[in-house]
Design goal:
4-stranded antiparallel beta sheet, single chain, mainly beta, globular, 3% helix
């Protein structure tokens, strides 16, 4: 079976073959499962339902999503002399965060690090501390650098934490994807774990990710009830928020920013990585998204984007700017466990 993000249902082999056949006129590579640059013309946003486990834990991945059972032909291995930044990666179906060391010229397996159950997004802060939302326990825990000890744990009694961002002042923004009492929200905490406010917006329906720019403005990606992917900006991380008028995506990923304030965000439905220049009201620069990725952060040097590819069980690396696909890390990652959040260290400014 193969999944189509247009409807949230698995496609039979015949239907999947028809989709791929319709793409054959393009010279661009098409990843397994119908993603990639040749796929978007066949997709229509007919409604989005998030994946929910049998015990009610929610993922930002679409309902019915089925990962590929093999590595696609377009996927390249890292170069032999590659030296990547430290990379933390979560798998929604796994039970730990994996940590690739900074210097890893032979693509060695990552270290098995902090516990992480039904985890969507993760975040490494500027001090190297790792923030892990645990969707099953309804908690977010900060861990010391290099797979260190737990520092603080923030409970989420209202729902399920699914992503986390930090502003320049160290305030913590925890995105709630499954609020038991109403629409999803973003809870704001002091670095000590004390809650100071809550961010909400009338358009909030299904949240995908939260990010902060270097000026302390906070951005939340969302799928409205009208099936429009938008991004809400909260100036200085405070209410009220407002929708960025130039951003209308299919299934938006997590907002990320470069040193010039450009907003970098994936679009799962259109299979693109989009870059919007401030004030985010014009057309973006786009490049093909090879796999199925929601978390695509930028490294500190601002030269590579690291995308957690849920479809192919990999971390796909793209050049920045430009968006050319470079290679993928696959060592010890499993497609069946659904690679989701990825966070480089050192963190981007």
């Amino acid at each position: 079976m193969r999944f189509s993000v247009l409807t949230g249902y698995a496609l039979g082999a015949t239907a999947a073959a028809a989709l791929l056949a319709g793409c054959s006129a393009s010279s661009s590579p098409t990843p397994a499962g119908g993603f990639g640059p040749a796929a978007p013309q066949h997709r229509q946003a007919t409604g989005y339902r998030p994946m929910v486990t049998s015990d009610g834990v929610m993922s930002v991945l679409p309902a019915g999503f089925t990962p590929s059972t093999h590595r696609p032909a377009w996927m390249k291995s890292p170069p032999a002399k590659d030296v990547k930044p430290g990379l933390a990666v979560a798998q929604f179906g796994g039970d730990t965060v994996l940590w690739f060391k900074k210097s890893n010229k032979k693509n060695k397996p990552p270290a098995v690090c902090q516990p992480a159950s039904s985890t969507n997004g993760i975040r490494v802060d500027r001090q190297g501390n790792l923030w892990v939302p645990d969707g099953r326990a309804n908690t977010t825990t900060e861990y010391a650098p290099n797979c260190g000890a737990a520092l603080i744990t923030i409970p989420d009694p209202t729902g399920e934490p699914a992503d986390v961002a930090l502003d320049p002042a160290g305030n913590v923004y925890i995105m709630n994807i499954n609020n038991l009492s109403g629409p999803p929200t973003v809870a704001v905490y002091k670095p000590t774990g004390k809650q100071i406010r809550t961010l909400s917006d009338p358009s909030f329906n299904t949240l995908f990710g939260v990010g902060s720019d270097r000026n302390g403005n906070v951005f939340v990606s969302n799928q409205t009830t009208g099936n429009v992917g938008n991004v809400i900006e909260f100036p200085k991380g405070k209410m009220p928020g407002h929708a960025l008028t130039g951003i209308h995506l299919g299934l938006p990923g997590t907002p990320a920013f470069d040193s010039k304030g450009n907003l970098i965000i994936s679009d799962w439905l259109a299979a693109t990585i989009d870059v919007f220049a401030p004030p985010y009201d014009g057309a973006p620069t786009t490049s093909p998204l090879m796999g199925a990725s929601i978390w695509c952060p930028l490294n500190k040097a601002g030269k590579q984007i690291y995308c957690g590819d849920a479809e192919n069980g990999s971390i796909d690396v793209y050049a920045y700017p430009g968006g050319a696909y470079l290679y993928s890390y696959t060592n010890s990652l499993s497609a069946s466990l659904l690679v989701t959040g990825v966070s480089p260290f050192p963190a981007a400014p």
